[in-house]
Write a structure and sequence with these properties.
60s Ribosomal Protein L30, Chain: A; Phosphoribosyl-aminoimidazole Synthetase, Chain A, domain 2; alpha+beta; binds adenosine-5'-diphosphate; 6-stranded mixed beta sheet; 24% strand; binds magnesium ion; 9 helices
């Protein structure tokens, strides 16, 4: 039986840290950070709960990836550069196979982003994974939700809806070919946080957030905080590769209200169109222009005839959804 100390040592003390901003990592009562002089720290936590955010038997490698990915995505949405993270883990048992898969998935992604595990807590209990992540950003350059301006274009990175399609496949709401379901499920279990794009959009984008609960609802947060409205053409929304082959109805529904996309939705003034395209090209991230920020309140979605579409715009809410 693994002791708590061995568990941490074997599975979580994995990175050789040579970054001078991390004065002390795992091992003492606290980690010590020395941020680059003049930079602000951007801090965010995301908790993933078994049975709520993932299936209890989820593949541990993909789960390790996803837990860190959703946290990195919050830094991306702010335009912050990843620096470090802590991991608070509640585990039903010390299962070496699970732990090694989980830690490999997590560290692979951490390595790609130069982000270091600097501490955490480990306890026995229902499977529950909480990461707190730290990033750096020059003061005044964060991409905030309250910064959208009338006349801004609305942009989306990558494409939307394949993760939601995969979920519909698991629920048997939709019949998918097995290969299609597998490919869509990868988008659900292994999201790609858009950190390089987020950093490249500093000084270009006004407002930004990452889409976790569905575009319509998440964009709503920008509109509310910025006190503006938006108009969007629904058929301009970029659909995931698998979703593209589904009916128009489903494409519309899942691009607009799906969830688990972890793409960025951001606004930028018209004169920055070329700069946004260049930021996308430099970071190898597709970007699509899908609408405009207008005066007023709320989101108006237009159909192919430029008529307002009557759609039930639902967003995910843990306390409203059973
Ligand atoms: P304390 O009892 O002082 O909180 P712990 O025994 O819980 O310390 O942890 C010892 C060290 O291991 C600390 O530096 C802590 O940050 C780190 N640690 C504990 N759990 C984890 C984990 N899941 N991932 C990374 N570091 C961890
Ligand atoms: Mg502790």
């Amino acid at each position: 039986m693994l002791s708590e100390f061995d568990l941490i040592q074997n599975y979580f003390v994995k990175q050789l840290i040579t970054d001078s901003r991390i004065a002390m990592g795992i091992g003492d009562d606290c980690a010590l950070l020395q941020p680059t002089p003049g930079m602000q720290l951007a801090i965010s936590s995301d908790m993933l709960v078994s049975g709520r955010h993932f299936f209890a038997d989820a593949d541990p490698h993909m789960l390790g990836h996803k837990c860190l990915a959703v946290n990195l995505s919050d830094l991306a949405a702010m335009g912050a550069q990843p620096l470090a993270f802590t991991l608070a883990l509640s585990l039903p048992e010390a299962n070496p196979k699970w732990l090694s898969g989980f830690s490999r998935g997590m560290f692979q992604l951490a390595q790609q982003h130069g982000c270091y595990l600097i501490g955490g807590d480990t306890t026995k209990g229902p499977l529950n994974i909480c990461i707190t992540i730290f990033g750096e950003i020059p003061p005044g350059q964060a991409l905030r939700r309250d910064a959208a301006q009338v006349g801004d274009d609305i942009w989306i990175s990558g494409d939307l809806g394949d993760a939601r399609l995969a979920l519909a496949g698991y629920w048997n709401d939709i019949k998918l070919e097995q290969a299609d379901h597998q490919q869509a499920a990868l988008r659900m279990h292994m999201p790609t946080p858009r950190n390089a794009l987020g950093v490249a959009l500093r000084g270009i984008a006004h407002a930004a957030l990452d889409i976790s609960d569905g575009l319509a609802g998440d964009l709503g947060h920008i509109l509310e905080r910025s006190d503006v409205g938006a108009i969007m053409e629904i058929d301009l929304l970029p659909a995931g590769l698998i979703l593209q082959r589904q009916s128009r109805e489903l494409r519309r529904q899942f691009t607009l209200t799906g969830g688990d996309d972890y793409e960025l939705c951001f606004t930028a003034p018209e004169e920055k169109r070329d700069a946004v395209m260049a930021a996308g090209a430099h970071t190898s991230t597709p970007v699509s222009r899908v609408g405009k920020i207008v005066e007023g309140k709320g989101l108006t979605v237009l159909d192919q005839h430029m008529q307002p579409l009557q759609m039930d715009i639902q967003t995910f809410d843990h306390f409203k959804t059973p």
